[in-house]
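Dear colleague,

Following up on Tuesday's group meeting, I ran the structure prediction for the two-component complex that the binding team flagged. I've pasted the input sequences exactly as they went in, so you can double-check that nothing got truncated or mislabelled along the way. The structure tokens for the whole assembly follow below. Feel free to forward this to whoever is handling the docking comparison.

Inputs:
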Amino acid sequence: MDAIILQILNGLDKGSAYALIALGLTLIFGTLGVVNFAHGALFMIGSFCAVTLSKILNLSYEVVDPTKKDFLGNPLKVKMPYVESWFGTDMGAAIIDWSVPLAILFSIPVMICIGFIMERGLIKHFYKRPHADQILVTFGLAIVLQEIIKYFYGANPIPTPAPAVFKGSFDFGVILGFDPNTIIYPYWRLVYFGFAALIIGAVFAFLQFTTFGMVVRAGMADRETVGLLGINIDKRFTIMFGLAAAVAGLAGVMYAPINSPNYHMGMDFLVLSFVVVVVGGMGSLPGAVAAGFLLGVLESFASMNQIKSLIPGIDQIIIYLVAIIILLTRPRGLMGRKGVMED
Amino acid sequence: MSKTNLTRRGVLKSGAVAGAGVALPTIFTASSAAAYTNEPTGSTVTLGFNVPQTGPYADEGADELRAYQLAVEHLNGGGDGGMLNTFSSKELKGNGILGKKVEFVTGDTQTKSDAARASAKSMIEKDGAIMITGGSSSGVAVAVQGLCQEAGVIFMAGLTHSNDTTGKDKKANGFRHFFNAYMSGAALAPVLAKAYGTDRKAYHLTADYTWGWTQEESIVAATEALGWQTVNTVKTPLAQTDFSSYIAPVLNSGADVLVLNHYGGNMVNSLTNAVQFGLREKIVNGKQFEIVVPLYSRLMARGAGENVKGIMGTTNWHWSLQDEGSKAFVKSFGTKYGFPPSQAAHTTYCQTLLYADAAQRAGTFNPCGIAEALEGFDFDGLGNGATTYRAADHQCFKDVLVVRGKENPTSEFDLLEIVEITPRGQVEYAADHPMFAGGALGTCNPGA
């Protein structure tokens, strides 16, 4: 029982990341009709916003410490962050420690700008082209973006820790009446789950309860009619692209302490997120979120030793197996709408 | 009007004679020019450096390439000479190899076996490389070693730690300076037993490919021999990025040690996840829970940041060693590039010098002559103490370093501290050891 609860917790946390990326993908597909293979790269760039802010806050001047030697035997140059000299050692260290949460504020304008530039500069030229062209150009863009990041940040992962207060794990087992250490879960992953729920809720509320959201939803249902009513739907869809980029970016920022960011992390998530979108139903926002959590939980269960001993290698194929079963029984996915990608 | 006496038989006869006449010199020159693949004829000799320039190990590949360029500079008489000054063999004089200036071409392995074979093939066939070296993965090393055997050139392996490279997949044209998984286990287990006791229960997470399997087998055998129990061994997909679902059940299993048979990005992520779960703060079976990373790479350890503190593992070489060879190499590399070399840089630099020295001693670039010169070669002064290239499997035997993540690093390079230098006698094994069984060295292939 404890193992099952543990894997559900794990799955919810994985599912949070899948759901956030799939939500942005579906938003773009539903509004602009574009299959955006560069969406994983936006997640990766979000993570690198956290890395960048951390590097900015760690900008240092060098002080020579004659008592210590460097690897060549010269007096050691010790790095002193400017932030610590400006705000005092304790305050400066605290600011550096909280660089990931601070990067949320830093990443929103950056990601919206990147989203605007991508949409206006490249993707809008492919609205009327076949989906195959869109996939090729956005996939190419993803490769370009990740190579740019690799050029500036290198190929190795870069550690970007969470604030010290979130280190360690919470013992759920004790609360639920199990022995200590049976169900433990890291604090930061709980924060990530809560954050994902908040963002998903905010996006749904924005679309459901604002005039802007209503117009966007109307445009998703029937773009032509909304245009005929004299509403500039293109402008709104561009803003939605920026919003989707920001959602992916925020997912990436908060993910940075979970796995050290590297230039390839977007690709690792992209394929899975597409499966999530397809399983959820193309163009369905609730479907994307539900499928994200469902596949996250199933993936976690599949990596349990008991399951792996019954079906070896199931952890590597479970997501695709579930996708095949769902698409065979419900060809439009869990909550797919009629007429989407069926022309 | 003149009359020509052309007959069919006459044309055939004269054609055959003329054809034989034209072909005759080529038949003789062909056999003499192609005594072996890519025999250098001019005043230069070309080496092929096959390293990951793109992909997840690109930083390691870049460091290998820096070391190769430094080695070429030293072989041609440039720079301060580096480890040429400390190398026990004094055949190399800084005037290239056998009087020929050393040049090089590079290939990109992308850490993919097929791409690595293609780039090695291109360097051999198009660029005339006489030797191929480099790589940062056992899968790549085994694939390229096989190609070099077929092509008739020497392969000096780069960073490859799987037992199979000089075990079941060994080849007569291939040589490995780097240590292997068996040696890691043999060096690490006694130190672990001393630090954590002999009554321990270990849980292994293992990357699901050749290197992971051989490392798990080696560490399990070495630790069980000292009294540890192995609670479980779980294979994880190579492409896995989030290891939480594999780490979550560890505490419930009754294990008090987690062994991460992961390398590169896998190691960074699994270690980071394990530390996030707070495993190291837990007390299990009345003992402090411990994590072990049997194969360390300083470049990769940087990715895990503070999580490596106190974690034990092994490494082939470390820049803080204080022998004359290591000091000379660190000075030479550090002055040129501004930071200390990695173990990948060290092994590739050594391999280049060892190849050049073998050619010099053999008096030829013929792969069979070089192989003969390397087999059973005893040397010193290259940073690992007295070392032997064993003839039976082309594996180098030398001291192994047991290291631990440093608690108070003074710089971004100062991540590991040496716990013990395990003498080579403790990590040696018989050439027919079961973990290295299968496959045969075969005979040297000079190619053409």
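Confidence is low (pLDDT under 50) at residues 22-32 of chain B.

Cheers,
M.
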